[in-house]
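Sample 1 of the test manifest.
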Amino acid sequence: MSIIVYTESEEGKIKKIALEAVAYAKGIADQMGTSVTAVTVNSNDTSELGKYGASKVLQVSNDKLNKFNAEAYADVLAQAAKNEDAKVVVLTSSANSKFLAPALAVNLDAGYVPNVVSLPESTSPFKVKHNVFTNKAFAVTEIKTDRKIIGLGKNSYGLKESEAAASTEAFSPNLDAHDFDMEIVSVDKATEKVTIADAEVVVSGGRGLKGPENWGMLEDLAKTLGAATACSKPVSDMGWRPHSEHVGQTGKPVASNLYIAVGISGAIQHLAGINASKVKVVINNDPEAPFFKAADYGMVGDAFEIVPKLTEKLKEF
Ligand code: FAD
């Protein structure tokens, strides 16, 4: 019996969220006294999987899987889970993982909990804590099925290293049941910049920046930090920034390590979407702005003075 973890890759390179999922799976494996088996699909990038806790890698190589197909990928993982007699399958919270999870749950007759934020509170009964209500609250759910599927929330666990060394085996699941009659034809990346979903650091601007012409200083700060840029809802509603940057209850959720809010008041609907970020910094000229209550660090002052100075200092490092 082992724990299966799906290690997603992009152009053959294992994603950081997948390495975090491996480390997390190792944490559960230690709780349950078992080991971690990572499953890769069309990727040879297995060197770091042992470092984060996998003791075995099942490498699937099949041209039919070059493009993501939820049913087929779910079947690959189901066959791997059955092959390894796994009781737990760990996924990330990426769009692809969320897309394949229901099919996998049906295939394995397993209970699935997404957005899990920490190691199970107990493994017998199996209870996990996860984000609910767009990250405004936590729930603890007991998964009662024999097999369990966990979607690890982004940046919830971290890249904890381990002593394990992974052996690699080719794994050839039977995909005869799939006619692959639906395929993703192309993916247009909207931008080459760091996206909000992948970002460790997000620099976000609000109505306090007065107009789109003032975003240059935020772009400069974001570039210096290797960060993604984001904005509050009114900013995107007014067309100052693209809707893809709108974060909050009705926008994208942010779970970065660092979230810097500039000229954003901190309305509850905004905070709902960024609560999962680890460290929140606010720059606002109104000391009574609600964001200061939610932030870890705050700077009271004019963003037009603070941001360029901050960027200048950061460039020295
Ligand atoms: P404001 O509230 O106008 O705040 C601007 C801030 O900038 C102020 O605190 C001000 O002190 C500060 N400021 C001004 N000048 C400077 C300066 N020179 N230097 C530094 N600081 C300065 N909002 C979201 O963001 N995301 C959502 O998903 C979202 N969903 C919503 C859903 C619903 C159903 C509703 C009703 C509202 C939603 N909102 C959402 C809107 C939300 O309620 C707020 O209106 C919005 O977040 C405010 O945006 P803001 O902070 O940019 O602007």
